[in-house]
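ARCHIVE CARD
CATEGORY: sequence design from structure
SOURCE FIELD: tokenized fold
FIELD CONTENT:
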């Protein structure tokens, strides 16, 4: 089954996972536990994980699966995988608990370290972002947003034109001095509006042409970004580390991403605009 043939199945699976999440979200009592790193996990995370895992194993029994909500295999084992599913069943659990609607279901197919297909479903709105970047150097296979009613709208990043105001995105829970540093650099191009939000929606907004740049210095995990990276790249954008190389997956002994930069307009000289960024975040080097 090729990448495009998988998409209808992933749309259905992500929607069903979204319904399972919403069934919990609409209740007054949500039980919360905490992992070893103190990040929260709810019954909605587990329900979505179980549903996605069962459906993907039926759909592609030969493709292994890596999910935030499962015991992780040893690095030696997983690094032998050429192709695998990378899943965050409920990205934005803190947003879910705060009931601000900014959470998603993320499903990505990784091949040779690259996300070749990504689906990001937004349970509250019922919309789903889909991206298949295709082989490096070739045109994207598809990039669109599908509404709850099934209408598809093409996704395309927007160019930075003249002195038109820029939209910089930031994390709702992890703002730091890096955001201010980036804003100062962007203001040399045009006026800047900083908007904060949770989950992988930030990358999807750039893919949709509604924002321009997002820089993240604080830690994230590979399942947080993979699906949205596929969407962003398919729409014409890039997700890069602080050395301006595309983020890759399953390359290290751990599953923590390096600090990263997401941009829409790839024609801008980002290495010049953000020159010196590697010195702006003390944790950057040890997460490489």
């Amino acid at each position: 089954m090729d990448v495009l043939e998988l998409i209808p199945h992933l749309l259905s699976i992500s929607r069903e996972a979204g319904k399972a999440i919403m069934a919990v979200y609409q209740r007054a009592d949500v039980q919360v536990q905490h992992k070893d790193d103190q990040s929260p996990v709810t019954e909605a995370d587990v329900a979505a994980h179980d549903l996605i895992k069962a459906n993907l194993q039926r759909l592609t029994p030969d493709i292994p699966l890596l999910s935030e909500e499962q015991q992780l295999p040893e690095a030696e084992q997983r690094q032998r995988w050429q192709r695998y599913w990378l899943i965050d069943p409920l990205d934005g659990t803190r947003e879910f608990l705060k009931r601000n609607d900014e959470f998603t279901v993320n499903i990505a197919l990784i091949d040779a370290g690259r996300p070749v297909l990504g689906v990001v479903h937004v349970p509250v709105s019922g919309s789903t972002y889909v991206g298949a970047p295709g082989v490096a150097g070739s045109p994207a296979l598809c990039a669109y947003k599908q509404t709850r009613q099934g209408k598809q709208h093409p996704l395309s990043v927007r160019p930075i034109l003249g002195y038109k105001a820029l939209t910089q995105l930031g994390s709702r829970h992890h703002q730091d001095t890096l955001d201010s540093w980036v804003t100062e650099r962007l203001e040399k191009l045009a006026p800047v509006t900083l908007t904060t939000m949770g989950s992988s929606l930030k990358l999807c907004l750039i893919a949709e042409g509604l924002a321009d740049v997002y820089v993240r210095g604080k830690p994230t995990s590979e399942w947080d970004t993979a699906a949205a990276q596929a969407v962003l790249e398919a729409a014409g954008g890039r997700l890069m580390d602080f050395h301006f190389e595309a983020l890759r997956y399953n390359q290290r002994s751990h599953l923590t991403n390096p600090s990263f930069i997401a941009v829409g307009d790839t024609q801008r000289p980002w290495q010049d605009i953000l020159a010196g960024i590697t010195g702006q975040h003390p944790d950057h080097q040890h997460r490489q």
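CARD ANNOTATION: The CA atoms of residues 182 and 253 lie 30 Å apart. The domain at 166-287 is CATH 3.40.190.80 (D-Maltodextrin-Binding Protein; domain 2).
SHELF: design records, drawer C
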